Amino acid sequence: MASTHLYTYGITDDEVEFETEGVGDATRVYAVEHGSLAAIVSDSETMEPDRSDENLRAHDDVLQELLYRDGGRTVVPMQFGMVFKNARALKGVLRGGRRAFRKALNDVEGRVELGLKILADEGATVDREAIAASVEERLGPVNDGEADNGLFSDRLVLNRSYLVERDDRAAFDEAVDEIIDEYGEEFTVQYTGPWAPYSFVDIEIGAKR
C-alpha cells in the first residue's frame, strides 16, 4: 500500500472534518492540530499532485467550503501543491511558524477576498485614473485592504482584490452594483469571490518534508 501524505489547504484555528471532493480524488478533509492552530488536510498518495484543472478547482472548493461551513471560519490559505510527508512534519511547520500563522489569522479574521476587474474593448480610449478614482470612492469605505493584481493586458482598466469583513459584504455588493450600473454598458465588469484571502497573507513555507 502506498504511503499516505498530507495535502494541506490552509490554516485555521478550529477543528473541522467533512466529506468532499478534494485534491487527488481525496474524499475527506480533516484537521491536524498543534496548539491553537489547525491545518486543514486530506490524504495524498503523492508529494507532488498533478496541477490539473480538476485539482486546482478542488483546492479552491475546499477553501470556499471552509469559509462558510458551520458559520464560517477564518482561513490562511496555502498555495496549491503544499504536501507534507506525515503529521509529524506538518506539526513541525505549525510549531515553527506559530507566530506568523497567528498574526496572519488575526490580520484576516472574519474577512474574505473579493476581486474586481474592469476591461475595455480592444483599442478603446480609456481614462484609467478617473475610473480608478470612482471605484476607490465607492469601495474604499467598505473594505479593509486592497491589492493591485497588475494590468497584464491592454484591455484591463482595473484589476484589484479587496479584503472585506463578512458583515460588510452586502454593502460591498451594493457598491459593486453601482460600479456595474455606471460602467457595465461600456466595459466588461467582472466581480469574483468570495475567496480565501490569498492576496493578504504572505507566509513562506520551507521544506515540505
TrEMBL record:
Keywords: Gas vesicle
Record bears the keyword rRNA-binding: no
Subcellular localization(s) per the UniProt record: Gas vesicle
Lineage summary: Archaea, Methanobacteriati, Methanobacteriota, Stenosarchaea group, Halobacteria
Similarity annotation: Belongs to the gas vesicle GvpF/GvpL family.
Domain of life: Archaea
Name of the featured protein: Gas vesicle synthesis protein GvpLGvpF
Source organism (scientific name): Halococcus saccharolyticus DSM 5350
PANTHER family according to UniProt: PROTEIN GVPL 2
Example of a GO biological process term: gas vesicle organization
Keyword Transport among record annotations: no
GO cellular component labels: gas vesicle
